[in-house]
Amino acid sequence: MNGMSLRAASRRRPGLRFAALVAPGALFIVIGLMLPLLAIVVFSFWRTESYELYADWSLDNYRTLLGEAAYRTFFLRSLVTAILVTVICLVCGWPVAYFIARHGGRYRLLLVLLLAAPFFTGVILRIAALQGLLGPVGLINMGLTMVGLPPIEALMYTKLAAGLGLVYLFIPFMVTAIYLSLVNFNFELLEVAKINGARPWRAFIEITWPLNWIGTAIGMILVFIPCLANAVTPRFLGGPEATSLGMSLAGQFGETGTWALGSAMGVFLFAVSLLAIFCIAPTIRLKRSGFTGTSLT
Amino acid sequence: MRAGPATLSMSAALGLLYVFLYGPIGYVIYTSFAVDIVWPFPPSFTLQAYVDLFSSSLYSEALTNSLTLATGAAVISTLLAAAGAIGILRFRSRYRTAALLIFIAPLFVADLLIGISVLAFNARVLGLPGNLFSAMAANAIQGTAFGFLIILAQLVRYNWDMDDAAMVFGAKPLRCFFEITLPTIWPSLFGAFLISFILAFNNLEISFYTLGAIPTLPSVAWGSLRFGLGAELFALAALVNGFVFLVFAVMYLLMRLGIVRFGYRGG
């Protein structure tokens, strides 16, 4: 087909041009993400013996996972931590995102990029630095000791320290998601509400919050899911009481080499993540989002 | 406009968040100059870490690998995300919702899970050892999703009538893209590139499982944890941060002087 007739054909059929633009990315994600996920679903029904996978189909891995008290504890710990961290990020992230979107002016992009810049320093270094601030020989506790006060034991290798580490790592995602929704929000609506006598809080609850729920929901998911599967933070900040399911999962693919059980844990975590998404997705209505006024419905 | 108490407290929240985020980074930079990195007080400074950093080949190799990985992942992500976002916003199709869901799906899979599943797939299905390209692709999956979200959020307000007008006057789609669309949307592409670059540059959990024995900055950090973090890593992080802040300072000046607006169209 020569260029002219291709153009003519595509002008008649926008579906063709849609496919040409969308297909490469969609295929890339399907092949690069979905196939590997499918692979671990398959492996989760197999068996590992001395670092080798054998295709003996059974539910043994899931039985181990759900049956052993240790794994249940790890999972519940991960779940509770993830929920708490999400709520903290939400409460602390909203005012910041609102401020940047509303009052950031021409420096908005720069202010948002400043939230992303910490990622240039690796997770491990940042966590080591947090440890340097919070740990037993850290700045805060040594400083307290020096002026004759007792150190804050709650910050030394505890679940609280691990949770603080997670907030530290993931709050930029929450702020960015809310911000991306707020930049499409028409702040003039608030003026209208004000003229009609609504107090600022009422305007927030009835206008700003519901119309930006999509950003909030995406932010919550973006914080909740990596926190649920996190392995690095509890390992370095949490001490012996903070072992998470993610740490155990990483161990199955590392030291112990039991890939089949690890795959089952991965599938389980993925299922819980999907459950969280299915809980929150119905609450999102694109028509009642900041994206109103466009054809994206 | 006078700032009310609500605005003031929100700006305080922003300030506190920056302090929280940059406290540990300041600590890293401070410690990189310290004689004793475990307990760097009272201050006593040395440049030994920087001397060691430049005399060791491991760190420059890791930095090169991290940069290659991040650049590759960011280029792939930006191209795929931009094409996807434009396709979904501009052309009607009954597969639109499905495509939208596929593009944001990677956001909902944890790094660790992407890492181990790509590892399992490469090792047991394809029989591939860890390599830079599969790490690049694995990082680009996530980058594509983040880039897509960023571009989509900025592009929903874009007025496609301008493009249609150009087409009516006979511009070919490519020319139309480069002369009409790109000049308006480049800040969002830039944002998508930057975010996917940053995420891939220091990604630990995806890269760790897909790279095998190839060292990148996070895997070197991970490996050296067993013997305690090397002061060289602190020095390297300090240099990277210095460079990033330099870039931000230049951006700030450009915006301040009004040379580049980065998509801001207000007064």
CATH architecture of the largest domain in chain A: Orthogonal Bundle
Level of helix content of chain A?
over 70%
What topology, given as strand order, has the largest sheet of chain A? 1-2
List the quaternary state of the chains: heterodimer
The CATH superfamily of chain B is known as MetI-like
What is the straight-line distance between the termini of chain A?
34 Å
Q: How much of the sequence of chain A is in beta strands? A: under 5%
Number of domain modules of chain B? 1
Evaluate the radius of gyration of chain A: 24 Å
Taking pLDDT < 50 over at least 5 consecutive residues as the criterion, the unreliable ranges of chain A are 292-297
Strand content of chain B: under 5%
- Average pLDDT, all residues of chain A: 84
What's the gyration radius of chain B in Å? 22 Å
Structural class of chain B: mainly alpha
At the fourth level of CATH, the homologous superfamily of the largest domain in chain A is: MetI-like
CATH class of chain B: Mainly Alpha
CATH architecture of chain B: Orthogonal Bundle
Order of helices and strands of chain B: HHHHHHHHHHH
Ends apart, CA distance between termini of chain B? 14 Å
Q: How many helices of chain A?
A: 14
Order of helices and strands of chain A: HHEEHHHHHHHHHHHH
Protein name (chain B): ABC transmembrane type-1 domain-containing protein
Subcellular location (chain B): Cell membrane
Family (chain B): Belongs to the binding-protein-dependent transport system permease family. CysTW subfamily.
Membrane topology (chain B): Multi-pass membrane protein
Describe the structure.
The complex is a heterodimer of chains A (297) and B (267). Chain A is globular and about 70 Å long. Chain A starts with a helix and ends in a 17-residue tail after the last helix. Chain A has a two-stranded antiparallel sheet with strand order 1-2. Chain A has two domains: 1-43, no CATH class; 61-288, MetI-like fold (Orthogonal Bundle). Chain A is mostly helical. Chain A contains 14 helices and two strands, in the order H-H-E-E-H-H-H-H-H-H-H-H-H-H-H-H. In chain A, a hairpin with a 2-residue loop joins strand 1 (47-49) and strand 2. By secondary structure, chain B is mainly α. Chain B has one domain: MetI-like (MetI-like fold), CATH 1.10.3720.10. Chain B has eleven helices and no strands. Chain B has helices spanning 5-32, 48-55, 57-90, 96-104, 111-126, 132-155, 161-168, 173-201, 205-211, 217-224, 231-256. The longest helix of chain B has 34 residues, at 57-90. Chain B is globular.
